Input
Amino acid sequence: MKTKAAIIILIFIAAMLVIQAGRHEGKRGFKRAVVGQEAPNFKFGAIDDKVITGTDYRGKVVIVHFWASWCTSCIGEMPSFQRFYESNKSNPSLEIITVLYKDSYDEAMKLMKKYKYSLPVYLDEKSANARAFGLTGVPETFFIDKQGILFKKILGPIEWESNAIKDLINELVSKS
Output
């Protein structure tokens, strides 16, 4: 009997937490990204005070990749991601943006320098963009089409040189 009562209480508490989270999300005005709908108009900063926004890249396919230097999965996919970046950085139809999530820029740059990575790294001050995208952890990647629609979201590490990713990029780039 005590077990049933405890389970009912836990279910009730969980339901209240879900309701509260939804109420707080609405008050803050956060609209989470949904595949098939317009992607958030992100705004990322760089250490040199350069700021980029989603509207800067309309007409291009945009990859927004959240990562951190403390994330072992992120570090594990970096060699593949660097090779992907090198082979695609001159593609005028594609923009690749990496964004630090809850990480020190200095630590990330140490990692980048140690392994000679040249991926562009941007900052998400106060994680506002991470919330807008509905980030659940790192690594997490968002593929935005030329019209600014979120086409695909991938949770976890990616094999960037796989046929699946090549096909995805080709589909997005060839799409008008």
